[in-house]
Amino acid sequence: MNVKPILESSTVTVSVPCRLDFGGTLDISTFYLPLCNHTPSTFNIALDMRTTVTLQPWEEGRVKISSKGFESREFPAGGAPFNQPLGLMFAVAEYFDVHGVHVHIESSSPPRSALGGSSSAATALCAAFLYALESRTDPAGAAWIAHYIESSVAGVPCGMQDQLAAAFGGVNQWFWLLDNGRPAFRQKTLLSGPEAIENLNSCLLVAYCGNPHESSDINGRWVKGFIQGKNRDAFKSVARLADRFSGAVGDRDFALAGRYMIEETQIRMDMTPDVLDETGKLLFEKACQMNVGARFTGAGGGGCIWALGEKSAVAALRPEWRKILEEEQTGELLNTAVDPAGIRLERHGRY
Questions:
Q1: 80 and 220 together in one domain
Q2: Contact yes or no for 5/147 (Cβ under 8 A)
Q3: Which helix (H) or strand (E) covers residue 28, if one does?
Q4: Are residues 199 and 302 in the same domain?
């Protein structure tokens, strides 16, 4: 479909948040189907470091995509390779069968920081096309479409917690299940309202370690080992901890939640010692010494690490983490907070 005439009359801009997470991997069907009797779930917090997608008119029969930090690419409609840095975005455009569009992507999170950036961008792009073509917002629909396209393009099993955090925002526990024989999720909102969110912000710390992550390597090893019958008990423990952690957050017992974080991180490190890079290990050890929980984001191996604990303990940890990052001459503490909003239509007006 040629969307140039549509976008010449009204461009579309959509933004979505990125996320912190706990219990990731359990959102992959390779894990949650065999573990269905252990109530697999994933926790995530949406962050206000948003990814913004803008659709603008372009030459008929062509699709162009520009994203900060990547070389802009342009191809005839249906002719883009998917095995390139912007391949996922071209795959989304091809799913919607559109041309005559220039997609602009801007992200306020560090590149390859394990905060779910690429999945967030795909979700935002799906939401933007749904609005441009059908004048509707559909958070669940955008998340499902982005998830299935990413799984197809990646060629490896993928979860969908990143897409759900982007679509819905807030602080949630996501349960993975089958409903009438079809994959489904159930959302449990754990904290909401300005007072609860502000309280969580004061007990939260996020650091970018400075080294970009490669999630497919570690994720791939977890998947391969699980299929081979290894680490099954470890992932049953992860499922148990994800549920207990979510309950502690819902009760606002962040000190208890922090202890569950430490336990889960240690299980992951036993399976894959490189889930924390050298800077991440220093940050994790310092958090443990100060009775604050800490965990990598995504599949680790670089990117970000986040901490959760009592307000006073987190306040004391902040300068210690800053000192480590300065001494290592890598990374930074991120100025970020919980984002209660998911998909947001930023602008719908004349180009």
A1: no
A2: no
A3: none
A4: yes
Reported pTM: 0.94
Res. 242: pLDDT tops 90? yes
Burial (CB count within 10 angstroms: exposed 0-12, middle 13-18, buried 19+), residue 230: middle
In this structure, are residues 317 and 305 in contact, taking their beta carbons and an 8 Å threshold?
no
SS3 per residue for 273-341: HHHCCHHHHHHHHHHHHCCCEEEECCCCCCCEEEEECCHHHHHHHHHHHHHHHHHHCCCEECCCCECCC
Q: Any idea what the CATH number is for the domain that residue 315 is in? A: 3.30.70.890
Sign of CA dihedral 91, 97, 103, 107: negative
Structure token pair of residue 314: 């987190």
Let me know whether 47 and 104 are in one domain. Answer: yes
Is a pLDDT exceeding 90 seen at residue 156? no
- Quote the pLDDT of residue 348: 64
Phi, psi of 112 (to 5 degrees): 50, 50
How many independent structural domains does the chain possess? Answer: 2
| Structural domain harbouring 218 | 194-333
The continuous run of DSSP H or E covering 57 comes out as strand 41-57
Residues 6+ apart with CB under 8 A from 27: 40, 42, 159, 160, 161, 174, 176
Q: Report yes or no: 5 and 341 within 8 Å, Cβ to Cβ.
A: no
